[in-house]
Amino acid sequence: MAAMPQYLVNQNLEQAKPKFVPPPNSPQAVVLHREIIKRVRIQIRPREHRPKHLLLGTINHCEFRVIKPIPVHLDVRGNTVIASWRQIDEFGMGNSSSLACDDLGHTIAELYLSLGADAPRLGPDLAKVWAVLKQHVMRRS
Amino acid sequence: MKVHEFEKIVNKLGLKVRNSGDRLAWFEYNGQAVVRTKRSHGNKEQPGNMIRQQLKVNEKQLAGLINCKVSLTDYVDILKSKGVIALPAEQPGAAPKKA
């Protein structure tokens, strides 16, 4: 019979564990048996919440460039995050903040194109929206 | 806001719609685009508060739009009172109204 490890022959024995060998010439933490840990300081950081406001510097559309950061307000409704640009009452939705901002970017691009096409026949409110939009976003040449 | 409630408003106000990444809708009056709104595709719950702000109405008026209490004429009056629809300028030759 071939020689078998002792832990396989005698099931009660535990398998030999590898020994930890610290690398030479490296700082090591040494705990002496006589030392008793009397006090442990635990620092609990409060959970970092989703920011309520952020400035959007890019929009997810290759044709447009953001020339002035867009102030975005983030709001959570159930499982959906709503990113809104309150100055022009525009919003985007998604399952996360980034997806909501992406959707808002698409909406802004869409709005830019449609308002740009209808610029001569905009009502007073949409004319203001168009003016604000042009301050923040421009079309790449 | 449910999708069918949004569509009810679209039909009642005769909003023009276009399907893009979202379903875009806008209200035209006298050939001018006055307000616009949108909803996402699918049957997800829509953010009623944002749509209400885009349509320039308060909560009661939005409920009225959905429940048939606010008509198209009422809505136009609301927009006029808020200055969203520009009132026609008085003609120079017209006689001023007496107080």
- Shape descriptor of chain B reads globular
Helix fraction of chain A by DSSP (H/I, runs of at least 4)? 25-40%
Cα-atom radius of gyration of chain A: 31 Å
Largest sheet of chain A: 4 strands, antiparallel
Q: Would you tell me the structural class of the helices and strands of chain A?
A: alpha+beta
Number of strands of chain B: 3
* Radius of gyration of chain B from CA coordinates: 16 Å
Q: Largest protein interface?
A: A-B, 22 and 25 residues
Coarse structural class of chain B? alpha+beta
Fraction of residues in β-strands of chain A: 15-25%
Query: Which regions of chain B have little confidence, pLDDT < 50, spanning 5+ residues?
Result: none
Overall pLDDT of chain B: 84
Mean pLDDT rating of chain A: 83
Sequence stretches where pLDDT stays below 50 over 5 or more residues of chain A: none
Query: How many separate helices of chain A?
Result: 3
Can you identify the CATH class of the domain at 53-139 in chain A?
Alpha Beta
